[in-house]
Design a protein that fits this description.
With 305 residues, the chain is of the alpha+beta class. The chain has 2 domains: 50 residues, no CATH class; 225 residues, 3-Layer(aba) Sandwich (Protein Transport Mog1p, Chain A). Helices cover 40% and strands 25% of the residues. It has an 8-stranded antiparallel β-sheet, with helices on both faces. It has a 3-stranded antiparallel β-sheet with strand order 2-3-12. A two-stranded parallel ribbon has the order 7-13. The chain is globular.
Length: 305
C-alpha cells in the first residue's frame, strides 16, 4: 500500500469513528466521495405552512427559517450531530435558519417537542422572582451533575440568564435563555427556550448553540414566537376546568424544568452532546474534504481502466 493510500485510509477510519454520518453517507454516496451538501439535500426541508404531527399546531414559517419533519430531524440529530437515537425520540421537527447550513460551524437549529403534562396555569407569572428562581435552578443542576458523573458524562454549570424570562400573557407564550458551561470547556453554550402553552400541554422549542450566536437567535425569537400556534381545540383558551388535565406546576415550574425528570435522562444528555456538534461537524467536513482531495489526486495518477 502506497503512503498516500495509508494516509487516506487512516483519515477515513478516524472520521467514520467520530460520527456515523461519515459511514452512512459513504455507503450511500459510492465510497468516500461524499459531501455535506449531499447529506443535507436528503433531509427534506419544507417551507410555507407546516402542520405538526397530529395536527395539534401549525407553523407559518417566516422566510428566515426552513422546517425539517421528524425523520429529517432524527437524521440530523443522530447521524450528523452525533446524538444517541434515544435523544431523538419524540422530536416533532426542527426549525433551521435558511441562511445557514446546520452542518456548518455557525449552524444551529430549534428542536420541537411536545410535553403532554396538562394545562399550565399562568396565575403565578406576574409574581415570579427570576433571580431567586435562577438560584434554585443552579442548585437543581448540581443534583443532576451527580447523575451525569455517575453515568460518565461531563457536568453542567448553569452560569446565569443569557436572556431573562419573559411571558406574553395575551398569547400564552414564554421565552428565556440560559448560559451553560459543559465540563472544562472554555466556550459557553446557549440554551434558548421557547414555550407555547396549550390546552393539554406545552410545545417545547429549544435552540442550542454557542453564546456568540445569541444576537442572531434573539433577533429571530420574535419571528418564531409569532409563527407557532396551536390549532382550534388545542388552544390555551379551549381548556375545560374540571374536565381537562391540569399540570402540577405553573410558569415558574415550567421555566425551572418541573417535567425534566419525566422526559427522561436522554433529554439531559441531548443538551450536552449538542454543545459539541459544531466541533464534530467541522472535523468531519474538513477530514472528508481532505480525503476526497487526496483520492482525486490518486485517480488522476492512475491510467484509466
Amino acid at each position: 500500500m502506497r503512503r498516500h493510500e495509508v494516509v487516506v485510509l487512516a483519515v477515513f477510519l478516524a472520521v467514520t469513528s467520530i460520527l456515523s454520518f461519515g459511514v452512512a453517507e459513504a455507503q450511500e454516496s459510492d465510497g468516500i466521495e461524499v459531501t455535506a451538501e449531499e447529506f443535507e439535500a436528503k433531509l427534506g426541508y419544507q417551507t410555507g405552512t407546516v402542520k405538526l404531527e397530529g395536527e395539534m399546531a401549525t407553523i407559518e414559517l417566516p422566510d428566515s427559517f426552513r422546517f425539517l419533519g421528524s425523520e429529517g430531524s432524527k437524521r440530523l440529530l443522530t447521524e450528523a450531530w452525533g446524538n444517541p437515537p434515544e435523544s431523538a425520540e419524540g422530536v416533532l421537527g426542527m426549525l433551521i435558519p435558511a441562511s445557514l447550513s446546520p452542518l456548518s460551524e455557525e449552524g444551529w437549529g430549534i428542536v420541537i417537542t411536545y410535553e403532554k403534562e396538562g394545562y399550565v396555569n399562568d396565575d403565578d407569572a406576574a409574581k415570579i422572582d427570576y433571580a431567586k428562581l435562577l438560584k434554585q435552578m443552579q442548585k437543581e443542576t448540581l443534583k443532576y451533575n451527580k447523575v451525569r458523573e455517575k453515568e460518565g458524562y461531563e457536568t453542567i454549570e448553569l452560569v446565569g440568564w443569557a436572556e431573562p424570562p419573559s411571558y406574553d400573557a395575551g398569547n400564552h407564550k414564554v421565552y428565556w435563555a440560559k448560559d451553560l458551561v459543559f465540563g472544562s470547556q472554555a466556550e459557553h453554550t446557549l440554551n434558548y427556550s421557547i414555550r407555547i402553552l396549550g390546552r393539554h400541554g406545552v410545545l417545547v422549542l429549544n435552540a442550542i448553540a454557542g453564546m456568540d450566536q445569541l444576537p442572531s437567535i434573539r433577533s429571530e425569537a420574535q419571528n418564531v414566537l409569532a409563527a407557532v400556534e396551536f390549532n382550534e381545540g388545542h388552544r390555551y383558551a379551549d381548556y375545560l376546568p374540571g374536565k381537562d388535565k391540569a399540570a402540577a406546576y405553573g410558569i415558574a415550574g415550567l421555566i425551572a424544568g418541573a417535567a425534566a425528570v419525566k422526559v427522561g435522562f436522554f433529554k439531559m444528555l441531548l443538551l450536552g452532546l449538542l454543545a459539541f456538534k459544531k466541533a464534530l461537524i467541522a472535523a468531519v467536513v474538513v477530514a472528508l474534504a481532505f480525503v476526497k482531495r487526496v483520492w482525486d489526486g490518486k485517480k488522476k495518477q492512475q491510467p484509466a481502466t
